[in-house]
């Protein structure tokens, strides 16, 4: 297919749900991507957070090749070895409990929401003497979420997402979600009722603009959840699997969630979702209550095991610390140099650069110079390079941005 034919086919046959960049990629390796004309791009936003090992990591490719030559799929009504191994590994890396496998971040969050409701329904509030069985509205079902959060596009995940622009036109959304201001514990306290079942948040809001949760805020949330017997759901779909310099971001905060959701980076580019549930609530969803046909298939589990092995063998958490510090040093140097940069923030290799101007033009200029980055919320440039990125690659990327900002500052 010629370039124009590709664009035409998308126009004619694919629903226009994505804002698209006119690049057609054919090959990837590490932090490099090749387009149809053989131009090479430096990818500082691989797969919107999926590409933590860069493109086509050899360990993932080998694992997938090995598995597809033996058995591609087996449903969850049977057993297979890789799912057992991956579950054990994830629990070993996180906290005592059990996991549920699905295929995406939104789906993992849907699972967390359903589990919270089941958990809340079992608690009939003060009237435990009632002989009437629990029915809708009698138990606890409300979930507190936060402004600028992002939890996915399915209806319940969308209701949990604290951004009106994504919800508009899809009402009525499932009930029972209350959105309050991020990092504001008083707002959370005001929103609590005897119907509250859970509090759900990202510790670094990704799509919402790289907003980092305050430590005190998170400790207070944990305390509130403990005191009122609520579930603390941490959405680590974007922050998980080493992105912030620890296996999971919650480990920076000295807390343990009741439910953690994972997806993006876990299977090296293959679709996966996981909900990791603390031991005491891990059996709430029993046989027949929740399911996902493709969840935790052999190919995905093998790929995820290869990702976890690569993280360890290649000492990537140490590399995130080293190169993350370096990236922030470089970005802060740009901030000192250019007035268009308002703030640099983030954690590990998850960096946001808030501008005083719209970021779209900058992203386009970067693309012309063969650097791929992202812009979220209009003015926030987002960098989430592969966890095996090098200082040289960071120098190159920041150098390109420097050149562009120089022109912008003069003209702006
Ligand atoms: C991307 C993302 C999701 C949604 O994941 P999908 O796989 O697109 O459904 C949910 N939560 C967070 C924090 C995300 O970054």
Shape descriptor: globular
Helix content: 25-40%
List cofactors, ions and other ligands: pyridoxal-5'-phosphate
Order of helices and strands: HEEEHHEHEHHEHEEEHEEEHHEEHEEEH
From the alpha-carbon coordinates, what is the Rg to the nearest angstrom?
Answer: 22 Å
Q: Which regions are unreliable across 5 or more consecutive residues at pLDDT < 50?
A: 125-135
Number of strands: 17
Largest sheet at a glance?
Answer: 7 strands, mixed
Write down the overall mean pLDDT: 95
Strand order of the largest sheet: 4-12-11-10-7-5-6
| DSSP strand content | 15-25%
Q: How many alpha or pi helices?
A: 12
Structural class: alpha/beta
- The separation of the N and C termini measures 41 Å
Describe the structure in your own words:
The chain is of the alpha/beta class and 412 residues long. 37% of the residues lie in helices and 18% in strands. The radius of gyration is 22 Å and the shape is globular. The two termini are 41 Å apart. The structure holds pyridoxal-5'-phosphate. Pyridoxal-5'-phosphate is lined by residues 104-106, 109, 150-152, 202, 206-207, 235, 237-238, 263-264.
């Amino acid at each position: 297919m010629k370039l124009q034919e590709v664009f035409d086919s998308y126009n004619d046959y694919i629903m226009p749900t994505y804002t698209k960049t006119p690049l057609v990629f054919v090959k990837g390796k590490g932090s490099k991507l090749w387009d149809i004309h053989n131009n090479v791009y430096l990818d500082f936003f691989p797969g919107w957070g999926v590409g933590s090992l860069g493109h086509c990591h050899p360990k993932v490719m080998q694992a997938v090749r090995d598995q597809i030559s033996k058995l591609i799929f087996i449903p969850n009504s049977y057993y297979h070895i890789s799912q057992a191994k991956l579950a054990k590994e994830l629990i070993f890396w996180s906290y005592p409990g059990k996991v549920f496998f699905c295929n995406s971040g939104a789906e993992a969050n849907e699972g967390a929401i359903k589990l919270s409701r089941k958990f809340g329904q079992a608690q009939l509030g003060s009237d435990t003497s009632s002989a009437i069985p629990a029915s809708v509205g009698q138990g606890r079902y409300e979930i507190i979420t936060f402004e600028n959060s992002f939890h996915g596009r399915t209806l319940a995940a969308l209701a949990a997402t604290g951004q009106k622009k994504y919800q508009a036109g899809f009402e009525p959304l499932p009930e029972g979600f209350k959105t309050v201001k991020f990092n504001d514990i008083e707002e959370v306290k005001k929103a609590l009722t005897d119907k509250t079942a859970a509090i759900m948040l990202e510790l670094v809001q990704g799509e919402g603009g790289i907003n980092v949760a305050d430590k005190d805020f998170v400790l207070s949330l944990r305390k509130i959840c403990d005191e009122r017997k609520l579930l603390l759901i941490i959405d680590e779909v974007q922050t998980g699997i080493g992105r912030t310099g620890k296996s999971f971001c919650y480990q920076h905060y000295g807390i343990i969630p009741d439910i953690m959701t994972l997806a993006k980076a876990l299977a090296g580019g293959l679709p996966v979702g996981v909900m990791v549930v603390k031991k005491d609530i891990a059996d709430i969803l029993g046989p027949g209550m929740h399911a996902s046909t493709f969840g935790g298939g052999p190919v995905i589990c093998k790929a995820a095991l290869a990702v976890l092995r690569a993280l360890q063998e290649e000492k990537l958490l140490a590399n995130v610390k080293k190169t993350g510090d370096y990236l922030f040093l470089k970005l802060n140097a740009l901030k000192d140099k250019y007035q268009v940069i308002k703030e640099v923030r983030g954690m590990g290799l998850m960096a946001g650069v808030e501008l005083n101007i719209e970021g779209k033009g900058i992203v386009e200029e970067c693309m012309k110079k063969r650097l791929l980055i992202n812009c979220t919320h209009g003015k926030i440039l987002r960098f989430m390079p592969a966890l095996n990125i090098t200082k040289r690659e960071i120098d190159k990327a920041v150098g390109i941005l420097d050149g562009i900002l120089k022109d912008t500052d003069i003209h702006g």
